[in-house]
């Protein structure tokens, strides 16, 4: 069964360090999403890609976060420098289409980030 | 701005009971509503997708309904089992935005 892959599953870092997360969407899915989920809350969209283009990054803290999807397949989310408040679960999702009724999203296992 | 609310925040039921989880949203201009399950420390598993033109969807013991005019969706779980214990999240998509509720934490007692 096709799945969204993410790595690493867990990351512990000290504040001011740089961290990077990787995501490989389901094959053929043109749309890729990065979400951040704080414990006890629902996921919040950070950035959405359609192929290699950014569709929405309005909630991405651009002073420290960056995301890329250079070839329109896998994607990397980077934080530099990490802050204590960045501790959260980072989830990647993909969908076949970017909008409309058939936009069913499938999630990866997530990366749990702890900033000390 | 779309807001999604899930009630109750937590629910504990004995095994075998039928139960209903609620999701409400403020903007009815949505494309679809999706229900997910999340186990502790894990990613989200898609349960059901209801398109805006549909009223309900069923999968096994799960049935989800959608009433756009009132801004509500319900997830009905029949004959609950301890393995159903998890957090259930609803998400509404409109335009290019997907907004999640905070979830309902369900515990099914054996």
Shape, principal axes of CA atoms of chain A: globular
Order of helices and strands of chain B: EEEEEEEEEEE
Residue ranges of chain A: pLDDT <50 for 5 or more in a row?
none
For the CA atoms, what is the radius of gyration of chain A?
13 Å
Helix content of chain B: under 10%
Rg of chain B computed from alpha carbons, rounded to a whole number of angstroms? 13 Å
Mean pLDDT of chain A: 94
Mean pLDDT of chain B: 95
**Succession of helices and strands of chain A:** EEEEEEEEEEE
Q: State the secondary-structure class of chain A.
A: mainly beta
Give the overall shape of chain B: globular
Report how far the terminal alpha carbons of chain A are from each other: 37 Å
**Count of alpha and pi helical runs of chain A:** 0
Structure, briefly:
In chain A, 0% of the residues lie in helices and 47% in strands. Chain A has 116 residues and is mainly β.
Describe this structure in words.
- The complex is a heterodimer of chains A (116) and B (110).
- With 116 residues, chain A is an all-beta fold.
- Chain A has no helices and eleven strands.
- In chain A, the strands form two sheets. In chain A, strands 2, 4, 5, 6, 9, 10 and 11 form a seven-stranded mixed beta sheet that branches. In chain A, strands 1-3-8-7 form a four-stranded antiparallel beta sheet, with no helix packed on it.
- In chain A, β7 and β8 (75-79) form a beta hairpin.
- The termini of chain A are far apart.
- The model of chain A has no long low-confidence stretch (mean pLDDT 94).
- Chain B is mainly beta and 110 residues long.
- In chain B, 35% of the residues are buried.
- The model of chain B has no long low-confidence stretch (mean pLDDT 95).
- The A-B interface holds A 4, 6, 33, 40-45, 48, 55-56, 89, 91, 93, 98-110, 112 and B 4, 31-32, 34, 36, 41-46, 49, 51-53, 89, 91, 93, 95-98, 100-103.
């Amino acid at each position: 069964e096709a799945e969204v892959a993410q790595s690493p599953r867990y990351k512990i870092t000290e504040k001011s360090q740089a961290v990077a997360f990787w995501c490989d969407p389901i094959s053929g899915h043109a749309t890729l999403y990065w979400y951040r989920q704080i414990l006890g809350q629902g996921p919040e969209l950070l950035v959405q890609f359609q192929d290699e283009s950014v569709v929405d990054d309005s909630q991405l803290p651009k002073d420290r976060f960056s995301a890329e999807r250079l070839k329109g397949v896998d994607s990397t989310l980077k934080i530099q420098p990490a802050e204590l408040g960045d501790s959260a679960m980072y989830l990647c999702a993909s969908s076949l289409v970017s909008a409309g009724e058939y936009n069913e999203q499938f999630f990866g296992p997530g990366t749990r980030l702890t900033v000390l | 701005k779309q807001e999604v609310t899930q009630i109750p925040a937590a629910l504990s039921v004995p095994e075998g009971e039928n139960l209903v989880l609620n999701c409400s949203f403020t903007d009815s201009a949505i494309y679809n509503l999706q229900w997910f399950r999340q186990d502790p420390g894990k990613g989200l598993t898609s349960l059901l997708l209801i398109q805006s033109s549909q009223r309900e969807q069923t999968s096994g013991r799960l049935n989800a309904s959608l009433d756009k005019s009132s801004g509500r969706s319900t997830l009905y779980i029949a004959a609950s089992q301890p393995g159903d214990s998890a957090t259930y999240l609803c998400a509404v998509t409109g335009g290019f935005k997907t907004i999640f509720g905070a979830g309902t934490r369900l515990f099914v007692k054996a």
